Amino acid sequence: MTSEQSFEAGQRFLLATKNWWTSQMYSRLREEYAARSVSRRRPHTVADVAAIVEDLTLYRYFAWLERHLQRMKYSGAYGIVRYYDANREPVLREMNSDDPSDGMLELNPNLELPRYYTSIDIHQHPGGVWSDEVAGLVYEHGARSTTPLLGTAHADLHTRFTAIVAAGCSPSRVLDLGCGFGKSTEPFYSRFPDAQIEAIDLSGPCLRVAAHRARRRNAQNVHFRQRDAADSGYSEASFDLVTSTMLLHETPPKPLEELISEAHRVLEPGGLMIHLDFHYVPDAFARFMHYGHGRRNNEPYMQPLAELDLHKLLRRHGFEAGLVEPFREADDLGPERRDVWRLPWTVISARKRRATARSGRPQRKPAQRTAAKRAK
């Protein structure tokens, strides 16, 4: 059995290596690409970049490390899966000590999980985030090093996103789609204590972790439910805010259409939909690297999302003209940084059109539903 000390040392080593890969190795690769592209017609497409980069020895090392550092993080001798499997009994005992009578958690063991969700070990997480009792804890631990340049300030990314939401509205009824283990939900139930927060996800193990975290924070205004974001089961016009974080790029095009349509249905007229995801890719080299990341990290729907006309998608489902804007995960990290590898963080937002009577006057806002009716 791997000791706690060995496990932590192994994970720190992998993170340090990934930081070097993210900064120094990526910067050197970009320099080699720039030097090679000077003598050629300016690359405009991903194929143009591939013709230059794929033959570079440094790129092959870069791609190998990206794939296998992630694999070792989860499945190696000091991997997270191995650690939580060995410590299954004590970690589950702690979560099982929660009092379920508060109604914070609603699981549905009969929920039919989509094939696109179950057929891929996303993020190279063995068995996915749904198939094992400890999968939520594995996912929560792995997420701590998703953005290595942020170090221990990774949670600040979610706080920054919530601050953007708060600048545009003060919601009273919030639906967080694909909430995972609750990291995206926590800033909402903390920042808006008078709001009723509903958070849904396909993964039962992740939802158990989310509820456990919320109970430890003494949250009183959130419920976690095992439901499909494309078919949530909530009534029409139940929410004034629908949100998600890092969900859209994990959804194939057809279910994504259904998700956007469902968000529109459950929003009240004038309600806001806002997502934090990956879309704004400013140049051909960045697109090439982003698409490669999706393949190497078992995220095959990254590229379809990046190539999607989001404005057309939003209009097609009845939203007013939306905004697709780059997001800064830290003060010194934004799309202008080309010396480090970073994901193309993007805020995608739109409002549901306000209903109007035949006279052209705005209709009155529907009366606020009780918490029981909102939960359905």
Topology of this structure?
Elements: H1 4-37, H2 46-53, H3 57-75, H4 80-86, H5 88-96, E1 105-106, H6 115-118, H7 135-142, H8 155-168, E2 173-177, H9 186-191, E3 196-201, H10 204-216, E4 222-226, E5 239-245, H11 253-266, E6 267-278, H12 284-296, H13 302-306, H14 310-316, E7 323-326, E8 345-351, H15 371-375
Parallel strand pairs: 1-4, 2-3, 2-5, 3-4, 5-6
Antiparallel strand pairs: 6-8, 7-8
Helix pairs in contact: 1-3, 2-12, 7-10
Structure characterization notes:
This protein is of the alpha/beta class and 376 residues long. The chain folds into 2 domains: 1-86, no CATH class; 152-375, Vaccinia Virus protein VP39 (Rossmann fold, 3-Layer(aba) Sandwich), CATH 3.40.50.150. It contains 15 helices and 8 strands. It has helices at residues 4-37, 46-53, 57-75, 80-86, 88-96, 115-118, 135-142, 155-168, 186-191, 204-216, 253-266, 284-296, 302-306, 310-316, 371-375; strands at 105-106, 173-177, 196-201, 222-226, 239-245, 267-278, 323-326, 345-351. The chain has an 8-stranded mixed sheet, sandwiched between helices. Helix 10 links the parallel strand 3 (196-201) and strand 4 (222-226). Helix 7 (135-142) packs across helix 10.
Task: Name a few traits of the molecule.
eight-stranded mixed sheet, 8 strands, 15 helices, disordered C terminus, alpha/beta, Rossmann fold, 376 residues, globular
Given the structure, what is the number of helices?
A: 15
Overall CATH architecture of the largest domain: 3-Layer(aba) Sandwich
Strand content: 5-15%
Characterize the biggest β-sheet.
8 strands, mixed
Mean pLDDT: 91
Structural class: alpha/beta
CATH superfamily of the largest domain: Vaccinia Virus protein VP39
Shape: globular
- Please give the share of residues in helix: 40-55%
**Secondary-structure element sequence?**
HHHHHEHHHEHEHEEHEHHHEEH
Question: What strand order characterises the main sheet?
Answer: 1-4-3-2-5-6-8-7
The top-level CATH class of the largest domain is: Alpha Beta
- Radius of gyration (Å): 22 Å
Contiguous uncertain segments of 5+ residues: 357-376
Query: What is the fold named in CATH at topology level of the largest domain?
Result: Rossmann fold
Number of strands: 8
How many separate domains make up the residues?
2
Distance between the termini: 46 Å
